[in-house]
Amino acid sequence: MANASNAPATDAPDAAAMAAAGDDAAEARAAVWTDAAMIAALIAVDPAGLGGVHIKAWPSPVRHRWLDLMKEMMGPGRPFRWVPVSAPESRLLGGLDLTATLEAGRPMVAKGLLAEADGGVLVATMAERMATETAARITQTMDRGAVTLERDGLTRQFDTRFGLIALDESDTDEDGPPAALLDRLAFSLTLEGLRHDDDLPALFLAEEVAAARQRLPKVTIGDPHVEALCRTAAALAIGSIRAELLAVRAACASAALDGRREVDEDDALLAARLVLSHRARALPAPPQQQDDDEQQPPPPPEDDAQTDEPETPPDLPDQPDEPEADTDRDDLADNAGEEDRMVDAAQAAIPQDLLNRLIAGQGARAANRSAKGKQKKIAGARRGRPTGTRRGMPGGGERLNVIETLRSAAPWQPLRRAQGQVAHDGVQVRADDFRITKFKQRAETTSIFVVDASGSAALARLAEAKGAVEILLADCYVRRDEVALVAFRGTKADVLLPPTRSSARAKRSLSALPGGGGTPLALGLDAALGVAEGERRRGRRPIVVVLSDGGANIDRAGAAGRAQAKEDALKSAQAMRAAGVQALFVDTSERGRMRGKALAREVAAAMGAEYLPLPAADARALSTAVRARTPADADG
Amino acid sequence: MKPTFPFSALVGQQEMTQALMIAAVDPAVGGVLILGDRGTGKSTAVRALARLLPEVRVTEGCPYGCDPAKGSGPCGEGCPRPEGDQSEVKSHMKPVPVVDLPLGVTEDRVVGALDLERALTKGEKAFEPGLLARANRGFLYIDEVNLLEDHIVDLLLDAAASGETVVEREGLSVRHPSKFVLIGSGNPEEGDLRPQMLDRFGLSVEVGTPGEIATRVEVVRRRDAFERDPEAFLDRWADEEKALRARIVAAQGHIGSVQVPDEVLAKAAELCMELGTDGLRGELTLIRTSRALAALDAAPAVTLDHLRRVAPMALAHRLRRDPLDETGSGARVGRAIDTVLGPAAAGAPGSAQAVG
Fold this sequence. Notes:
Keywords (chain B): ATP-binding, Bacteriochlorophyll biosynthesis, Chlorophyll biosynthesis, Ligase, Nucleotide-binding, Photosynthesis
Number of strands of chain A: 17
InterPro entries (chain A): BchD/ChlD_VWA (IPR041702), ChlI/MoxR_AAA_lid (IPR041628), P-loop_NTPase (IPR027417), VWF_A (IPR002035), vWFA_dom_sf (IPR036465)
Pfam families (chain A): AAA_lid_2 (PF17863), VWA_2 (PF13519)
Largest sheet of chain B: 5 strands, parallel
Protein name (chain A): Protoporphyrin IX magnesium-chelatase
Structural class of chain A: alpha/beta
CATH superfamily of one domain in chain B: P-loop containing nucleotide triphosphate hydrolases
Family (chain A): Belongs to the Mg-chelatase subunits D/I family.
CATH topology of the largest domain in chain A: Rossmann fold
Oligomer: heterodimer
């Protein structure tokens, strides 16, 4: 267990001895597993303090092995609860225990999964499908260390502290679990690439973990380590301060596992690598620029003066007001070495796909991703939002509302008992008492704008489309509508704004839209159809709004040529029609240009789209046109 | 339940802490909305506030904690106060309630419902007050307010507007007071707030992640110390907490005597005109808020500086939303302040032209 924080190094000699090319891969896999096993041990030491881990892996023997290991590390008697993605709110938070209530004749409480997980871990399967609302209930519980139950006529509070294991089975280009949840989990782990026949050992014994758990409250962390972790987080442009808090907890857990009461540099390095690197939103600046970067975490566009003073420690504090700054600086200068090593370690551990995006300057998807108002249903049985109850028989898709049924039965109990028709003492419920929940079926719409960003009119058109998006978002709250935006230009089409109902997010995504170049209409329509089908799968109703003059001149393959481009555009349009997606084609060509008009009409007809000539399509006219075509709520 | 972090130990986030303290001094400012990124200490601050609040006198046995000094007769269903002579009414001191409205709350717990236990066991029809009853004369806190389900939002809007809760269900017909200060927090990235809900908040502040490393280090240090040994940490901050509480109590006593000069009234009106905020509510909130701030500063009268400091939190969320305007509402308020009050250095002298 002395190898706690540098275990990969101990594996190296074995692999080197074999000295074969294929062993590099094996070695890399061994290193991944070592981290995985380390993470399991750390979580087992301090589940609630560390929040847990985000595991990106499909169901596999390796994932199974890791979960077994996690269970083993937790030790016997500690809860290990599974939360299926379909778990209803009442099971998650707790509520009225129907059987016990009917039996006892008075309200009895059933604890929920969150309360049952106290002292252990909670495993959320298919966490990428978890609704924002469910995630919020879990994170509130994690933040407060208690579940507050205000349901079914019950008021209870259960203390509970647990770690969460979020199993993420998303595809690479799909969104993962809700960002608010990931923010609270210390670790992120990808098990893909590991093979089930690899050696997948545990690093610690359950007894060692138990001892570390006892030791943990006494473990302290020195200020230099805290500072180094904060600076590393800043160098990686990490926003949420939970990153540092979790890194501190991880360093302490690591020290505890190693049998120490003081965090040392290895612990801190390990924490930086396992907690900070996967949150990186930018690559650390080259050393001589670090000074500037650290003071303004996002890459500063303007100030790169006075950066070439080699003797300036990269962490020169920006607190000129303190008289003892000199001594501080000495401390910090001593500490600069650790910090450099830490930044290096963290940087080296940035996952490859994230690294590629960072290099491409796209920022971490994890950071950009927001919850996009996922409206996935929490439970399959729940349709729409509950709007009250009414008398009726359950069955045929109607759900019994237990608490209201009991309430309606309650006043009659003395009378029914007096009539003595039933022998037992429990609550006597008659068919008359049944109450079922009324749901309001939401006609949730996603408006997908497909904007022609090519040519000279591009900027104006984009600005209007953007305006329309924002106007729609500004008043779509009540209807829970979402908006997406696809732009095509040059040789490609991009989903600039994935479906969202957050205007804050839309504003950010739309703030800089490029324009100009050729008109790959076919690609734009294909991309829109992709988004539309995705929305259908989410149970939403897509409506595609195309803003173009129809003058396609780039074909599907990205080659120039009007004839082929037009043919491809018509094909894509037909595909949209075949998919039965409602569409609106807004012709933005100027009145005089009849050619454009004819083209647009033709594509619109092929799509089965409504054709709307709006040469000066302004944002308000657009949003009004779209709104007129989206239905209001319907009772279901 | 974890112990709560002390309010006085919060690092930075001045606007947020100030708004909360203002709401504590004068509940009439009408609630605080805190919007911001993840991990900025929004809910920590609200929960910490609870401990700072001074105690109030409540009627013994009243489920709504009504003030024995006000009115006569029962304040609502189940209140034991008699009509007429109030000298027999028993009362005691109690901390101001800070009630949490958790996500996943059901309607019956918000407004109250038939007491199931008594109905089932005794066959009695009794009213069991809900969270809106418990929050009376206190604070109602909703974390992730933008994720609250619509039908629950409706209930809150109703109660927040009228100051009382009307329950008509299961043969119950109950009306009781529920005057509370609404505190909401949320991350705007996860969805927008319904405009009607936004309107119920008197003040709104935006919090961001601290960018300075020194600040972040301090946050992490304090948090670590707190989590390691909450008791010791609370002890260490006990004096600061006491001082802060004393400041709030003093401000509550002092607020009645804080003068609002005509110049300030005129400027407040001018500011609202400049920003085109609807109705009088913005103006009223602006005046109330600056008076509460002056009281916290132990100042005899409201100054233009107070007005300047509170204008963003009182007005930013009241601007008519123009989706086509790129500028954030905070910047628009800032511009209007500069126009009306002059640049930040000193308030523009004189010029108290009759505007409002």
